C-alpha cells in the first residue's frame, strides 16, 4: 500500500498539471501586460488628439473674431499644421486600437486557458484524493486483519518476524519448492535438506535474506 501511494499515477499528473497551469498563468500575465501598455498608449493618443482639437477650436475662434492679416495668416498656417497632426495621430490611434483589440482577444483566450488548466488540475487532485481515501480504508482493514493474525502467533515468533522485517523489508516468505518467497532465491541442497528435516514447529529462516520460511504442512 505504501508503494502504491508513492507511485500513484495522479501524483506525476498533478506535477505536470501544475507546471502547465503556471505556464498558462505566465502567458496570461504577458498578454495582460502587453494589453495594458497599448491601453495606456491609446489613452495618451486620445489626450493628444483632444489637445489638438482644442487648439484648433481656439484658432478658429480667433480667426472668426478678426484681426491683423499677419495674425490671420499665422493662424491659417497653424490650422493646417494642426489638421495634419490630427490626421497622423488619428491614424496612429486607429492602428494601436486594432492592435489592442487583438491583444484583448489574446487576454480572453489566455484567461480561458488558465481556467481550463485549473479545472484539469482540480479534476486530477479529486482523483488523487479519492484514491488516497480508498488506500486509507484498505490500510485500516489490513491493520485490523493483521492485529487478529498477530494475536494467533506466538509472541517470540512475532518478535523475530518484526526484527527481520525491519532489517530486510520482508519478514517471511512462503517456501515454494526450493525457492524463498521473500528474496526469490533458491536454497542450495544442504540448506533445503535442513529445512525439510526440521520439525514442523521449528522456526527456519532463509540463509540468503534471513526471512522466516513458511512451510506448507506435509
Task: Describe the protein's architecture and organization.
- There is one protein chain.
- This protein is mostly helical.
- It has 2 domains: 2-150, Orthogonal Bundle (Helix Hairpins), CATH 1.10.287; 155-214, no CATH class.
- It contains 5 helices and 3 strands.
- The chain has helices at residues 2-6, 9-64, 69-151, 155-168, 189-197, and strands at residues 172-176, 179-180, 212-214.
- A 3-stranded mixed β-sheet has the order 2-1-3.
- Strand 1 (172-176) and strand 2 form a beta hairpin.
- The longest helix has 83 residues, at 69-151.
- The model has no long low-confidence stretch (mean pLDDT 90).
- Residues 51-62 have a biased composition (Basic and acidic residues).
- Residues 51-71 are annotated as: Disordered.
- Pfam families: CT398_CC (PF24481), Zn_ribbon_9 (PF02591).
Please name the CATH architecture of the largest domain: Orthogonal Bundle
Strand order of the largest sheet: 2-1-3
Content-based structural category = mainly alpha
The CATH topology name of the largest domain reads Helix Hairpins
InterPro entries: CT398_CC_hairpin, Oxidative_Scav/Glycosyltrans, Zf-RING_7
Protein name: C4-type zinc ribbon domain-containing protein
Domain C4-type zinc ribbon: 179-213
Biased composition (Basic and acidic residues): 51-62
Amino acid at each position: 500500500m505504501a508503494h502504491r501511494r508513492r507511485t500513484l499515477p495522479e501524483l506525476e499528473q498533478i506535477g505536470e498539471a501544475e507546471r502547465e497551469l503556471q505556464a498558462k498563468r505566465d502567458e496570461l500575465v504577458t498578454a495582460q501586460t502587453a494589453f495594458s501598455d497599448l491601453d495606456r498608449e491609446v489613452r495618451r493618443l486620445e489626450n493628444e488628439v483632444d489637445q489638438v482639437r482644442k487648439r484648433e477650436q481656439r484658432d478658429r475662434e480667433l480667426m472668426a473674431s478678426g484681426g491683423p492679416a499677419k495674425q490671420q495668416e499665422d493662424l491659417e498656417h497653424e490650422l493646417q499644421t494642426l489638421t495634419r497632426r490630427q490626421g497622423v495621430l488619428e491614424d496612429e490611434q486607429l492602428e494601436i486600437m486594432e492592435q489592442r483589440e487583438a491583444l484583448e482577444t489574446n487576454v480572453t483566450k489566455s484567461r480561458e486557458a488558465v481556467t481550463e488548466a485549473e479545472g484539469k488540475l482540480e479534476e486530477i487532485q479529486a482523483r488523487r484524493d479519492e484514491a488516497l481515501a480508498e488506500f486509507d480504508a484498505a490500510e485500516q482493514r489490513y491493520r485490523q486483519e493483521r492485529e487478529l493474525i498477530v494475536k494467533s502467533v506466538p509472541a517470540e515468533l512475532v518478535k523475530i518476524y518484526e526484527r527481520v522485517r525491519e532489517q530486510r523489508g520482508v519478514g517471511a516468505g512462503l517456501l515454494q519448492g526450493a525457492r524463498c518467497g521473500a528474496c526469490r532465491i533458491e536454497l542450495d541442497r544442504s540448506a533445503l535438506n535442513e529445512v525439510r528435516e526440521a520439525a514442523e514447529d521449528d522456526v527456519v529462516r532463509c540463509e540468503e535474506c534471513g526471512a522466516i520460511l513458511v512451510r506448507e504442512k506435509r
